[in-house]
Amino acid sequence: MKIGLAIRELHRSEKSLARALLKAADRHHVEHEIHYVAKDLAAWSADHIRDLAVAGRRYGVKVGEEMPRSSGLLEPLRTAFSVLTGRQAVPGVLLLADLRQLHRMAAGVSLDWELLAQGAQAVKDSELVELTRRCHPETLRQLKWTNAMLKTLSPQVLAS
Amino acid sequence: MVRDGIADPWGARTPYGPGTPWPVRVDSHLAEGVAEEDVDSWVRAAAVLHSNGDGMDLAVKDGRIVGVRGRADDHVNRGRLDPKDLFGWQANHSPDRLTAPLIRRDGRLVESTWDEAMALIVKRSKELLDSSGPGSIGFYTSGQLFAEEYYTLSAIAHGAIGTNHLDGNTRLCTATAAAALKESFGCDGQPACYDDIDHADVIALFGHNAAETQVVLWDRILDRLAGPNPPALLCVDPRETPVAKAATLHLAPLPGTNVALMNGVLHELIANDRIDHDYVDNHTVGYDDFARLVADYPPERAAEVCDVPADQIRAAARIVGQAERLLCTVLQGFYQSHQATAAAVQVNNLVLLRGMLGRPGAGVLQMNGQPTAENTRECGADGDLTGFRNWANDDHVAELAGLWNLDVTQIPHFAPPTHLMQMLRYAENGTLGMLWVSATNPAVSLPELRRVRSILSQERLFLVVQDAFPTETTELADVVLPAAIWGEKTGVSTNADRTVHLNEKAVEPPGQARPDLDIWLEYARRMDFRDRDDQPFPPWNDAESAFEAWKRASAGRPCDYSGLSYAKLREVSGVRWPCNEDHPDGADRLYADGKFFAKPDYCESYGRDLVTGAPTEPVEYRATNPDGKAMLKAAQYVELHEKPDRDHPFMLITGRTVYHFHTRTKTGRAPQLRDAAPEPWLEMSAHDAERIGAAEGDLVEVRTARGAVRVALRVSAVRDGVVFLPFHYGYWDTDDPNHDRAANELTPTDWDPVSKQPIFKTTAAAVERVKAGEGPAPAPTTAASAPAATGIPAADTGPADAPPPTPTAPAVPETHGGPAARVEEHDATTVPGGRR
């Protein structure tokens, strides 16, 4: 049975996504909606990480439940850089690149949830099925958000 | 009868029972020395210092406005007037009105001619269009102009220029009302009307201090409470407002927790099966997901988040759950707070679950903050497409392009319209080169004022400001255009219950001031905008032809004006849209038949995610709501973005008060209103005041991560842990060079991702006593800022460094207006005559 493997992989990808969301929140501190919503959405991934860690125990997977609440030691630097360059148009391109990267990561996480959901059904683990049913829609909402922000912000960046 | 219009803002009671007409009471005020018989003419208008839309007449003598009188024949107010309207008209004659255009030369604003000023604007517009395209130009307008003006501005911005950057200051007051209605009903449009107060057996006010923000509406509720079979009143507000005092049940949740509270109330409704299952089955979609989400919010969980007793949440659910005719109203306590749309949508859900829609006494009023906010929204000056059209529906865009005879690619619809806060960001990063501000004062009304000032004063930003008065924003402008205001121009205004009024020109504007409509039309002519047939665009040329064009644009849409005309509006004082062949006299309520404007081909919006704000894709909407039913949606409670901590232990909320409006540009120039509340203050509970060692009247400093203000302390009955600052006060009437008076020095740049409405009511703040005051705070005693009933410490008269005094009996003089605030009240039989 490779359910444990799927949980471990999903745990890893959720963690990367959460970190990337927190990093984006700091790197684009002056883009207020990005800053706040990215943090809110990182909290969803943090919930997923905790629940996956708990579920993983039943499959012998030992992964951490905790997720840092900031983007790490470089947080003040990233924020300062954002504020310093806030009066320039160039970071707009960086923002699009980051949103694009977040979108691709969220798409990967979504696929991993899909795989886990399939596996959970195959081994008839109803608790695990319920977990995927609860969490996967939130990943899809993260995915839609990155897409929507790209769509909303790109015209001004690209046309100016 | 005579009353002091300041000491008694609400006037005498005219009690009435359910299902009977609200009695007439006509309020009037004439300038000192002017008698009824001196008045040359009475000119029709509607109130513009709040969203209630009270019908009134302006008294004119020798070419000047000399007083006002409520209209007895108007269904909105039946003659009553708000103190702001009784006295606010005096601002029209203020000696410091702007009377000539100003241009910035060598850093200073100097007088110029209209020709010079307009030529400069046109030159810069053309340069920007050539070099950077339409996305480099933005417009920020108001909630205080007329429909004709908003429609014209929409046509110019969205059509002629083709920029996506157009918004109104309705973003600050009513964006969430529109967003919540779109989420639940697929389209903007107020479902209920004020007459529902005459029928309701339960009225629930959510974050809606009607007593101060809609004085005459509160009169109507007070008259029901004084009559036979009065309604039960539910109030949700962290302050002890006059509404809270009159309420059957008052819940005072922590600011920013409205979603948790509402989820808890709706959890109880479902748990006790207080649901109209037939209505839900036949007229809504989304029940299962909705019920699953609120199942996670038993009253105990909500109680913990909101810091209100769980039993109060149960009691609230019982009151609304047992109502037979339930009327819900919502305003800024929800709209300007964390998770604004998700919270307001829960009120829509409440009336849907209980089947309380579309019949007398049953419905929801998602209120507006400003007098003509409804027009800003329906005409598209808030960025939405004209006539509640859907920017994501290509057919709607094509229809609008056809109406304007423009190429469809001319109208930007590749993304949602740019809201104000985003526009400001584009100005900050330099991609927006020109911002044209009309009839609003962002340098006082937007959050984080230090940032706002620094953005608006950038050299590379060409700032045009069009206003009637010098303001904190005109100070930063490159060009200032003097505008005519209410009383000096003609146009229609639509209030929060869809009532359309005609406002007629009563007097000439001062100096060279011109109506906003004329200014924009002249800009269009000078820019030489053309339609597909090479004809001048927009093709209309005055208020009435603009109104006729707007009627055509609205025809067939929910906000249908096609059955209205200036002539009809001169016969009837106030008609509710839709007014068309089906509803020749207007319609009191929307959705009476359980049918909504939500069909995929017709709806204004496909909705957004209630947490992320991401727009729903058209395909997804079609799949989930193919028949256009009402939509039950809910969101989980999301943690506050700024939580109180050791350094900032208080939750700061800001808001309006009874005697002032917006940034006091008009009310601060009316002596009675100015003197009733001349300076800002901070409200704090007696318990918290004791904690910081401060007493009534002491000077305190309120500090947040953004800045600090210094005001006098009013010890009031606001809940513990929460402090309140009025948001009206700026700097135009002070010599103080420090920016330490405006509440928005303190507020954060953060907004609801769904409605994009800035959050003014969830700020972590520190409060410290600076020194003793010279008497009580300059806060009115008549309304929510009344001194706490017991245990108010007296003002400290000792030296600044002395220890806080022991509490003794307070001596706060009652707010009054004296002879200058004399208001006459007439009943139906004694209404004064006078020529019209």
From TrEMBL, chain A:
Superkingdom classification of source: Bacteria
Protein name from the UniProt record: Uncharacterized protein
Automatic annotation (TrEMBL), chain B:
Pfam families in the record: Molybdopterin, Molydop_binding
UniProt-listed InterPro entries: Asp_de-COase-like_dom_sf (IPR009010), CT_Nitrate-R-NapA-like (IPR041957), MoPterin_dinucl-bd_dom (IPR006657), Mopterin_OxRdtase (IPR006656), Mopterin_OxRdtase_4Fe-4S_dom (IPR006963), Prok_molybdopt-oxidoreductase (IPR050123)
Comp. bias intervals (Pro residues): 801-810
Keyword tags: 4Fe-4S, Iron, Iron-sulfur, Metal-binding, Molybdenum, Nitrate assimilation, Oxidoreductase
SMART domains xref list: Molybdop_Fe4S4
Domain 4Fe-4S Mo/W bis-MGD-type: 40-96
Keyword Iron-sulfur recorded: yes
Any GO BP: nitrate assimilation
GO molecular function: 4 iron, 4 sulfur cluster binding; metal ion binding; molybdopterin cofactor binding; oxidoreductase activity
Cofactor: [4Fe-4S] cluster; Mo-bis(molybdopterin guanine dinucleotide)
Low complexity: compositionally biased ranges: 773-800
Region annotation (Disordered) ranges: 735-755, 772-836
KW 4Fe-4S (keyword) present: yes
Superkingdom field: Bacteria
PROSITE patterns: 4FE4S_MOW_BIS_MGD
PANTHER family: NADH-QUINONE OXIDOREDUCTASE SUBUNIT G, RESPIRATORY NITRATE REDUCTASE
Family membership: Belongs to the prokaryotic molybdopterin-containing oxidoreductase family. NasA/NapA/NarB subfamily.
Name of the protein in its database record: Anaerobic selenocysteine-containing dehydrogenase
